[in-house]
């Protein structure tokens, strides 16, 4: 898969090398929507990690070049402008880590001024681990806020060292803001307000949107804000099945290079 599962070369004391080649199982499907073909890859690695990737190919969204066109894109051919736009994708990830009694954890670090053990009169800023369990509306991480370094869905069961067993969630694709929430059309894609949102599992909530939302975007058939009501302070995400709703974004912009 382009990189080894693990490797190490050392020549500090003895000349040693060890490594394992990597391979993965890939489930791929392709959907053709309008001018785009979307290729969806679900990759299962030997390390136990799972990756979801999607990329688009096909034909660009274009328009006839007129005065002011270059405020919205680049010219890509004679009298043709490639228009800038954004693709939003929302995944539902329903992980059951050693059962359905799971919690949502964040892990980050903060610098603390501590005394140096071998020189107590001296102090140094040392990073310390900060772990939090998000139980209320904090579990909806908006796109315009700082996200903790590590996001975990954790079991209430621990390993031999007393740490909760968990899966880490990594969301790596963000390409800017979506439609302002003040716009009435935004209701049809309100899930895009969040990098990740965590909800209690309900069998009736299978998706964050619907194909039929496009028929009435002002009163969508599935409104994600109804799936994700802001919990009052007394409501708690107690250990339970916790589906995640990570949002991926891709900014589409076309450029050309011409030879003369």
Give the key terms.
three-stranded antiparallel sheet; 1 helix; 18 strands; Amine oxidase; EC 1.4.3.-; metal-binding; 260 residues; 2 domains; mainly beta; single chain; 2% helix; Beta-galactosidase, Chain A, domain 5; copper; 47% strand; four-stranded antiparallel sheet
Number of helices: 1
Q: For the CA atoms, what is the radius of gyration?
A: 23 Å
Within CATH, the superfamily of the largest domain carries the name: Copper amine oxidase, catalytic domain
Q: How many domain modules?
A: 2
Unreliable spans: 230-238, 253-260
Oligomer category: single chain
Strand content: over 45%
CATH architectural group of the largest domain: Distorted Sandwich
Give the strand order, joined by hyphens, for the main sheet: 12-11-14-15
CATH topology of the largest domain: Beta-galactosidase, Chain A, domain 5
Distance between the termini: 39 Å
- The best one-word shape is globular
N-to-C order of helices and strands: EEEEEEEEEEEEEEEEHEE
**Number of E-state strands:** 18
Mean pLDDT: 82
CATH class membership of the largest domain: Mainly Beta
Helix % is under 10%
For the sheet with most strands, the description reads: 4 strands, antiparallel
Classification by helices and strands? mainly beta
Modified residues (2',4',5'-topaquinone): 36
InterPro entries: Cu_Am_ox_TPQ-bd (IPR049948), Cu_amine_oxidase (IPR000269), Cu_amine_oxidase_C (IPR015798), Cu_amine_oxidase_C_sf (IPR036460)
GO cellular component, one term: plasma membrane
Protein name: Amine oxidase
């Amino acid at each position: 898969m382009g990189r080894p599962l693990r490797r190490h070369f050392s020549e500090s004391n003895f000349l040693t090398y060890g490594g394992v080649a990597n391979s993965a199982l890939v489930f791929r499907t392709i959907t053709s929507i309008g001018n785009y073909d979307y290729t969806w890859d679900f990759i299962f690695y030997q390390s136990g990690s799972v990756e979801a990737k999607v990329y688009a190919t096909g034909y660009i969204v274009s328009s006839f070049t007129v005065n002011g066109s270059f405020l919205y894109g680049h010219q890509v051919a004679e009298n043709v402008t490639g228009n800038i736009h954004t693709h939003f994708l929302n995944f539902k990830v329903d992980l059951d880590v050693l059962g359905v009694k799971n919690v949502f954890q964040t892990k980050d670090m903060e610098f603390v001024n501590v005394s140096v053990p071998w020189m107590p009169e001296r102090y140094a800023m040392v990073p310390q681990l900060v772990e939090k369990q998000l139980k209320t509306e904090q579990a909806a991480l908006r796109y315009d806020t700082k996200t903790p370094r590590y996001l975990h869905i954790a079991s209430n069961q621990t390993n031999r060292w007393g740490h909760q067993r968990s899966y880490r969630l990594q969301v790596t694709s963000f390409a800017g803001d979506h439609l302002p929430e003040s716009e009435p059309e935004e209701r049809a894609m309100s899930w895009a307000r969040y990098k990740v949102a965590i909800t209690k599992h309900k069998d009736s909530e299978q998706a964050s949107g619907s194909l039929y939302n496009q028929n009435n975007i002002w009163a969508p058939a599935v409104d994600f804000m109804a799936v994700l009501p802001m919990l009052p302070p007394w409501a708690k995400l107690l250990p339970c099945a916790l589906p995640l709703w990570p949002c991926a974004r891709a900014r589409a912009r076309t450029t050309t290079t011409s030879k003369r």
